[in-house]
Amino acid sequence: MTTPQGKVRGRPPKNKICTWCAESRQPLKYILPTQHGKKEFCSETCLSEFRKAYNKGACSQCDNVIRGSPVRFEQPDSRHKDFCSTSCLNKFQKDSNVDQKRVNVNGDKSPVGTTTTPPSPCPSTPTLGPLVQPTFSFDWESYLKETTSIAAPPDYFKQHLVPPNNEFKIGMKLEALDPRNLTSTCIASVVGVLGPRLRLRLDGSDNKNDFWRLVDSNEIHPIGHCEKNGGMLQPPLGFRMNASSWP
């Protein structure tokens, strides 16, 4: 039925219940497939906690996590099945029409006709399927509003449509501004090449201080550039002579 304004009347959609925290949320964005269907969660935290508990054992009837002492169903071949409740066990017996004994693992009070056995050292573990990523697209407008952020305008980006050619080779020397102190010019070596980028290492330092520059960066120059422009080239780290005597 529609109203004069064209809106559809009726009950609003019911919120789904998170499998782990049991809170009512809409929508549930995280899904985990299992042997008996899929489980839905309101957050990645709930999904992670469920997986931890699920790996320890799940109810053989409803496939839910067993919280507390499981009700165990023994079979003649020494195998057993665990259930989250007596009702699930009864339903399983009714569906399978098998007459077996049921026991409570931790010695809690069991229904009439049951016995208590110690927990099995090797309980069967259900096999989990692959984690399914949330089926929703990222909304930049909503994200910026939620984080009270501002997007960088497109005309602020000055990259070339076609990146410049990179003809540098590993081992070549050059002069580069120290990334930790841009007022200092140091000797650097090319230790890596990736597309239009150079991986540089200041002479005397180790790979923990490597940094990247584009081939057209104004922070790298050929050898002799510093001297020609009246600057002072800093000696390599560990150089013991006075910097003023450095050629």
Computed structural class: alpha+beta
Low-confidence stretches: 98-103, 109-117
CATH topology value of the domain at 172-245: SH3 type barrels
Task: Report helical residue fraction.
Answer: 10-25%
How would you describe this structure to a colleague?
- Among the domains are: 30-97, Roll (Ribosomal Protein L24e, Chain: T); 172-245, SH3 type barrels (Roll).
- Strand 10 and strand 11 form a beta hairpin.
- The termini are far apart.
- The longest helix has 13 residues, at 44-56.
- The chain has 247 residues and is α+β, with helices and mostly antiparallel strands.
- It is elongated and about 95 Å long.
- It is built from four helices and 13 strands.
Which key phrases capture this entry?
247 residues, alpha+beta, Ribosomal Protein L24e, Chain: T, SH3 type barrels, 6-stranded mixed beta sheet, 3-stranded antiparallel beta sheet, 4 helices, 24% strand, chromatin binding
Outline:
With 247 residues, the chain is α+β, with helices and mostly antiparallel strands.
Which helices and strands appear, and what pairs or packs with what?
Layout: E1 16-17, E2 24-25, E3 30-34, E4 37-41, H1 44-56, E5 71-74, E6 80-83, H2 86-96, E7 101-104, H3 140-146, E8 173-178, E9 181-194, E10 197-202, E11 211-214, E12 220-221, H4 225-228, E13 233-234
Parallel strand pairs: 9-13
Antiparallel strand pairs: 1-2, 3-4, 5-6, 5-7, 8-9, 8-12, 9-10, 10-11
